[in-house]
Amino acid sequence: MRFRLTPRETSFYDMFAASADNIVTGSKLLMELLGAEPSARGEIADRMRAAEHAGDDATHAIFHQLNSSFITPFDREDIYSLASSLDDIMDFMEEAVDLVVLYQIETLPKGIDQQIEVLARAAELTAEAMPNLRTMTNLTEYWIEVNRLENQADQIHRKLLAHLFDGKYDAMDVLKLKQIVDVLEEAADAFEHVANTVETIAVKES
């Protein structure tokens, strides 16, 4: 750990932890969507939208703190990248739920539950990791596991696409469902971006 002669602004750690906790809330809403009747999905989408707005507020708070702080706990560009990637995760999860409602999807395709389970696990790991930024300890297993989960998400995504294009769906349904599973894949990618940023920060601070 590099020796510092100046104090660091530590509120960033709490804000990153709060942002990650909000992502866990979003992942639980995704899980709830899986078991919900179509008539109940609109209410879930409303709660997801509220969670996404809370995520936006958390991101704006980090950016405000970044712009008003002379001393930061690590490089400014890394703080910006980490906050932005956390925000992206919530955006993608909210978009997926909203599309399910807007497109009036009756039955979600087989395999999408595996996508969402991967996202839920990545959310838990991310929420557990954020407080460790304060000490830069116990982070290696986190980014290794999230990268493994992203690889798993890639495989699930490819299988889902193969399923959608196997001729059992009409063309319009394929377009709708593909957009949903693609957005969920983007959420998995965003989790990997967060993990890669954490790894970059840890290497710089070591």
TrEMBL record:
SUPFAM superfamilies: PhoU-like (SSF109755)
PANTHER family reported for this sequence: UPF0111 PROTEIN YKAA
Similarity field: Belongs to the UPF0111 family.
Protein name: DUF47 domain-containing protein
